UniProtKB/TrEMBL annotation:
Its main location: cytoplasm. It comes from the Bacteria. It catalyses: 5-[(5-phospho-1-deoxy-D-ribulos-1-ylimino)methylamino]-1-(5-phospho-beta-D-ribosyl)imidazole-4-carboxamide + L-glutamine = D-erythro-1-(imidazol-4-yl)glycerol 3-phosphate + 5-amino-1-(5-phospho-beta-D-ribosyl)imidazole-4-carboxamide + L-glutamate + H(+). Keywords: Amino-acid biosynthesis, Cytoplasm, Histidine biosynthesis, Lyase. This is Imidazole glycerol phosphate synthase subunit HisF. GO terms for biological process: L-histidine biosynthetic process. Pfam families: His_biosynth. Transmembrane segments: none annotated. The keyword Lyase applies. Heterodimer of HisH and HisF. NCBIfam families: hisF. Its EC number is 4.3.2.10. The active site is at D20, D139.
């Protein structure tokens, strides 16, 4: 059954730079591989805060794979330099991980692999801290049928930075995450990630029709037009991007001015 959004469609769409962190540095790749250095995460975050970003997302992309926790010191350092909300994720597996990060200044936390492995974690975090603090990140890839090329493919959830395929189907999993208490879904299309060819708008639109919580679109941003498409065709509530911001290909102020001219509601810069 499709649901009506519980908030106004006229709410401002959010522009969110994402900083993937590996060994304390911001990195960016294509389809989750071939990473290259993009700078210091705290310096970049402060720059985006001044440039008009609505929020920031910091993801330690190796924390789960290497079985280490996201450093609370990073959250404290970020909080000292920012005046906009930020989400931090990576290696979160239990309540005390979140408690430390929120105490350090994070506004929200993002969980991914741990939630798929133990879905009750979503319930626990929502109950302990409130749904508004819980972002469930989902990495998925569209996979066709090898046995029957004529059979429609499916989106499947992947874990550990896209390294491990699961049997969870995307739309079933995000629906369960919402029911368990997720406050937002951060959906990354692995097929689109880093390609700059546009977002997975068809999947995003279907997700939006199924869910009543906000959806953050990630993977594929290459130009200003892609953001206009993801907010209209894709029905996303926020657009997240990395490399086009990190390497100066799109300026946030220019992007917001363009979107406003296209009739998309955005918060003004400054």
């Amino acid at each position: 059954m499709f649901l009506l959004k519980r908030y106004s469609p006229l709410l401002a769409k959010r522009i969110i730079p994402c900083l993937d962190i590996k060994d304390g540095r911001t990195v960016k790749g294509v389809n989750f591989v071939n990473l290259r250095d993009a700078g210091d995460p705290v310096e970049l975050g402060a720059k985006y805060s001044l440039a008009g970003a609505d929020e920031l997302v910091f993801l330690d992309i190796t924390a789960t794979h290497e079985r280490r926790k996201t450093l609370a010191d990073l959250a404290r350092d970020i909080a000292r330099h920012l005046n906009i909300p930020f989400t931090i994720g990576g290696g979160i597996r239990e309540l005390k991980d979140v408690d430390v990060l929120l105490d350090a200044g994070a506004d929200k936390v993002s969980i991914n692999s741990a939630a798929v492995r133990r879905p009750q974690l979503i319930d626990e975090l929502a109950y302990a801290f409130g749904k508004q603090f819980v972002v469930v990140a989902v990495d998925a890839r569209f996979i066709g049928s090898a046995d029957d090329p004529g059979k429609p493919g499916e989106w499947y959830v992947h874990l550990n930075g896209g390294r491990i395929k699961t049997e969870h189907k995307l739309f079933d999993w995000v629906t369960e995450a919402q029911e368990r208490g997720a406050g937002e879904i951060l959906f990354t299309s692995m097929d689109h990630d880093g390609t700059k060819a546009g977002f997975a708008n068809e999947a995003l639109a279907e997700m939006s029709d199924r869910l009543s919580i906000p959806i953050i679109a990630s993977g594929g941003a290459g130009n200003k037009e892609h953001f206009a498409e993801v907010f209209t065709t894709g029905k996303a509530d926020a657009g997240l991007a990395a490399s086009i911001f990190h390497f100066g290909e799109v300026e946030i102020a220019d992007l917001k001015a363009y979107l406003a001219g296209e009739g998309v509601a955005v918060r003004p810069v400054g």
